[in-house]
Fold this protein.
Amino acid sequence: MNLLEQLREMTVVVADTGDLKAIEDCKPQDATTNPSLITAAAQMPEYQGIVDETLTGARETLGAKASAAEVVTLAFDRLAVAFGLKILDLVPGRVSTEVDARLSYDTESTIAKGREIIAQYEAAGISRDRILIKIASTWEGIQAAAVLEAEGISCNLTLLFGLHQAIACGDNNITLISPFVGRILDWYKKDTGRDSYPVAEDPGVLSVTDVYNYYKRYGYKTEVMGASFRNLGEITELAGVDLLTISPGLINELAATEGELPQKLNAADALNADIERISVDKEVFDAMHAENRMASDKLSEGIAGFTAALETLETLLADRLSSLES
């Protein structure tokens, strides 16, 4: 069997893209999106119809007297769901749809936006068990996710770089976390000046391994989905983790590669691991976050990057609306 076939026997493979054709080709169980991926997909000619349909629907909802800015705002709120609905036609499982990154430090607004996203899906006939609301792993985001989870709304906590974030998510019974492997590697390469790391020493791989083992050692139900990969080795070194969300390019590379794929992570092995249990409240979370330069830098950078993508998307929608209505 190729590496992809073997990986699927021990780990759920998820496609990390907004490109519908790529999802159709990869045949993943689930799919994840983020603001950067949705913005990239919205600029592809083959998906112009989804953008136009969303803008037209927003105009029809608000009426002719609504300003262009109001129409764009409503279309912006609907576009990620519009792509999510198309993705759900192609995967048997779930899609992750992200809350506006600009709300990452606002608990109440994140809760409201999560409810709004679920309401859009349910109005389209999709049950909430097929949706993961994606929220940045700030303390405020984790508290918002806890409220949503209590309402039966499953969440995917993203931009996760440190054990303190993972423990806080597990303590709040979050459905899924997405630790970012490649972005952790990027930070360490820049900080140390090294060009590369052996895969077994990759800081991103080690971080996800630590989170996985902690969860399994202490019986957390929260699932671990490794994300943001830079190379094939990072993926194969995490074989056995609950889920991996992988770009179509790397999924295709796995499918084209023959060889043995040993299982590297195993819940049974973690049960006997000598791991200190940590109690994480807000004070501890803030202290651990401040001490972890990598996590602090990458969380802030990730939120800023997603915010920039959203601003690009808003401009794209405004330009397209002007073109449609001129």
